[in-house]
Design goal:
single chain; 9-stranded mixed β-sheet; 9 strands; disordered C terminus; binds iron/sulfur cluster
Length: 372
C-alpha cells in the first residue's frame, strides 16, 4: 500500500494546564514536566515534519503557553516552513508574549472559551478569572493582526448559550468559531453523564447554527462539529487512521490520533529513537488500522467504508471493548443502542463535574489519586 505524506502534525508540547475543564480529552494519566521533549528535539521534529510533507503545525497541550520556550519553538517551526497554529486557553499569554509570538512567525490562534458569562465560564474551566483573561487575550490578538478562531466545546452546561457564544466571537473580532460538541475520550469520558445534552437540545443547537450561519454570513464562519451520540453515521475520524495527520505527545511518542493510547496492545514509536518519516511509514501503531483489511462486518462490506473509514477506533474500543468494531455512533453498528442508553442515563444524572486536582508543585494528581 502506498502511503501519502501527512498534512498536519499536532504537537502536544506539554500536558501541564492551569485549567481543569471537565471535557478535557487528554489522558487520565498525564505526562510529567520532567518527561517532556526539550526545545532542540521539538525543533528537530518540526524540521523532519516539514521535510516529510507536513504543511500545518498545531501547537497544543495541555496549555502550550506553560512552556517557557514557546516563542523559540514557534520561531523554529516557522523557520522550517510550517504554517503554525497555536491552540490555547489564553492563560499564560500577555501582550508582550503575544507580540513575541507574532514576531516569531505565528500564523493563527485558536482560543478556547467556556461560556459568555464569567461565573459559569470559570466554573466550567475550574479556574477563577479565566473568562476575563481570555477576553483580554482575544482583544490583544486581534490588535496584533493575528487571525483568531474561537473554540467553543459544547455540552449540557453551555448548550443554551450557543447563540450568545457566536455573537460574542464576532464582537471579539474572531474570523471563525468552532462550535464543537464534546468528545468523550480521556478525562471527558469520566464526566460523560454530566456533559451529554438531550436530543432536543442538540436539534435546537443545529437549528441555531444554521440560522446564525445565514444571518452572520461575511461576519464570521461557523464550523459545527456534530455530536457522535446523536449521529446516524460516524465522522471520518482523523480523515482515516494514518492517512492525514499525526500527534506527538509531550514525551515524544507519535500517535495516529490524540486518544490512540487508550487502545491496548498498540506499539507507539518515539521521536527520541526514530526519524518521523520512518515512524509515519513503518510504525506498528500507524499500520494497525490503515486501509480496510482490519475491518469487521458491517464495515467490511459497507459502501461507506471509504467515506468514514468505520469511524473512530478509540470510541469503538471505549464502548465495545474491541477497536476493530464499527464505531457505535453508526446506526448499523450492533452497539449503537449503547449510545442512546448513555444519553438517557445522562439526562437522569445530577450533572456534577469531576475536576482534576494539582499537587503543590503544579503537576496534576494522577487520576486514581484524584478520585480518592
Ligand atoms: S481542555 Fe481545558 S484542561 Fe484540557 S488542556 Fe484544554 S484548557 Fe487545559
Ligand atoms: S458500517 Fe462501518 S463503514 Fe458503514 S457507515 Fe457504519 S461505521 Fe461507516
Amino acid at each position: 500500500m502506498s502511503i501519502a505524506p501527512p498534512l498536519g502534525l499536532l504537537a502536544e508540547l506539554t500536558h501541564r494546564c492551569p485549567l481543569a475543564c471537565p471535557y478535557c480529552s487528554n489522558p487520565l494519566d498525564l505526562e510529567r514536566r520532567s518527561g517532556e521533549l526539550d526545545t532542540a528535539t521539538w525543533i528537530r521534529v518540526f524540521e523532519e515534519a516539514a521535510a516529510l510533507g507536513v504543511l500545518q503545525l498545531h501547537l497544543s497541550g495541555g496549555e502550550p503557553a506553560a512552556r517557557a520556550d514557546l516563542v523559540e519553538l514557534t520561531r523554529g517551526a516557522a523557520r522550517a516552513g510550517l504554517y503554525t497554529n497555536l491552540i490555547t486557553s489564553g492563560i499564560g499569554l500577555d501582550g508582550a508574549r503575544l507580540e513575541a509570538l507574532a514576531g516569531a512567525g505565528l500564523d493563527h490562534v485558536q482560543l478556547s472559551v467556556q461560556h459568555v458569562r464569567a461565573e459559569e465560564a470559570d466554573l466550567i474551566a475550574g479556574f477563577a478569572g479565566a473568562h476575563a483573561r481570555k477576553r483580554g487575550v482575544a482583544r490583544e490578538l486581534v490588535e496584533l493582526g493575528l487571525p483568531l478562531t474561537i473554540n467553543a466545546v459544547i455540552h449540557r452546561a453551555n448548550i443554551a448559550a450557543v447563540d450568545e457564544l457566536v455573537r460574542e466571537a464576532v464582537d471579539l473580532g474572531a474570523r471563525r468559531i468552532e462550535v464543537a460538541h464534546s468528545q468523550y475520550y480521556g478525562w471527558a469520558l469520566k464526566n460523560r453523564a454530566a456533559l451529554l445534552p438531550s436530543a432536543a437540545q442538540v436539534a435546537e443547537t443545529r437549528a441555531t447554527v444554521e440560522r446564525l450561519s445565514a444571518e452572520l454570513l461575511g461576519a464570521i464562519v461557523i464550523d459545527y462539529v456534530a455530536p457522535d451520540y446523536f449521529a446516524r453515521f460516524p465522522k471520518p475520524c482523523m480523515n482515516g487512521w494514518g492517512r492525514r495527520s499525526m500527534n506527538v505527545t509531550p514525551s515524544g511518542r507519535v500517535l495516529p490520533c490524540h486518544a490512540a493510547e487508550t487502545i491496548p496492545g498498540l506499539t507507539f514509536w518515539s521521536v527520541r529513537e526514530r526519524p518521523l518519516a520512518a515512524i509515519w511509514r513503518e510504525s506498528p501503531a500507524f499500520n494497525a488500522f490503515r486501509g480496510s483489511e482490519w475491518m469487521r462486518e458491517p464495515c467490511r462490506s459497507c459502501p461507506r467504508k471509504e467515506i468514514d473509514f468505520g469511524g473512530c477506533r478509540c470510541q469503538a474500543f471505549a464502548i465495545t471493548g474491541d477497536p476493530r468494531n464499527a464505531d457505535p455512533a453508526c446506526a448499523y453498528a450492533p452497539a449503537h443502542g449503547s449510545m442512546d442508553a448513555a444519553v438517557a442515563a445522562a439526562q437522569a444524572s445530577a450533572g456534577a463535574f469531576a475536576y482534576r486536582r494539582y499537587t503543590r508543585s503544579g503537576e496534576r494528581v494522577p487520576a486514581a489519586a484524584a478520585e480518592s
